[in-house]
From TrEMBL:
Family as reported in the entry's similarity comment: Belongs to the trans-sulfuration enzymes family.
MF GO annotations: transaminase activity
Keyword Transferase: yes
Keywords: Aminotransferase, Pyridoxal phosphate, Transferase
Cofactors (names): pyridoxal 5'-phosphate
Protein name: PLP-dependent aspartate aminotransferase family protein
Organism (species): Brevibacillus brevis
Stored PANTHER family: TRANS-SULFURATION ENZYME FAMILY MEMBER
Amino acid sequence: MGERFETKTVHIGHQPLRQVASKSTPIYQTSVFAFPGLEEVEQFYAGEGEYLYTRNGNPNQAELSDAIAALEGAEAGVSAASGMGAIMAGLLAVLEPGDHVLASHEIYGGTYALLHKELSRFRIDLECVNLQELRTLADHVRPTTKLFFMETITNPLLTVADMPYWIREAKELGLKVMVDNTFATPYLVQPVTLGADLVVHSATKYIGGHSDVTAGVLVGASELIGRAREIVVNYGASLSPFEAWLTSRGLKTLALRMDRQCDNAREVADFLSQHPAVGTVYYPAKEATSFFCRPKQGAMVSFTLVDEKAIYDFYRKLQWIKFAPSLAGVETSVSHPVTTSHRAFTEEQRQATGITMGLVRLSVGIESAADIIAELDRALGK
Ligand SMILES: Cc1ncc(COP(=O)(O)O)c(C=O)c1O
């Protein structure tokens, strides 16, 4: 270390390689890693060293993606700065200019925008199909079709398609399959074990679980994930160490949270289906979720008000359930698809899809189910 005050203040106490048996993972809040000499730099490029620069890789990113890969039953994983970053990496790992993608018509709006508005510029063609009405993908497959994309539980109408059937179909037709498992999490279903090539999460939701991070994770076979990792690095979509650390911390309670949130959602769905002010309740049916590895139907419930005009009153009367256009935190929250996620829909599209002005999307939290029900009852008007 230098002798003088100015140098000492910069370097004093710095012991990056000190072995400390901390019980929790340290946050590697560094943009770059130091090398003792040029030999070690050579070793890194020869594939022997793990970390060079945080955009290329960081222990906190790896802790998160390794954990999700293991929980999903996948060979490898890569984390990204958001769910959209992970979806982009997965799509670009599979697709080349001129390719065609088949996707369920009920995909997240951001995924639709990425494919329809951005990847179309690379001549990647999107076709959406209604998995509730379709019997086979065969009539929609072209010589250029490379990928089939679906979500386990859709947003906001919470439809669950027969995923084992559609994955089998797509694989028989020679397609790669990518599943967005955000709403179900690996606690309820692991699409890789059903044959999916890539599984993606907006870890912003249940994986993190506390509405305090934006993160994404993509898992799958090592070769595809290797390519996806290059894309994350080259497009600058890497997850920050602190966000990765927070997400990993949230992950530790995923099973506890999911159990409680799903059980609460069941009670809330039962209550809503008997309430005179409620029209339709959207909640995954038991039969539809029979391929899940646990007898749970997710923790989201959507419903319509019989009197659409009462929608403003409903949101205003809620006292502690917050309106927040996201989901999956430990706190129960409500959203309104028409004025948020599905804002761009025309009145015609709203009527055709059922995503109408009177539709409420409820993300059920870990609070007392009795309190959640009392709060909803108050806002619905007795
Ligand atoms: C199902 C689904 N997939 C992907 C995303 C995008 O995730 P993020 O907001 O973390 O980019 C969302 C966001 O709401 C989502 O609901």
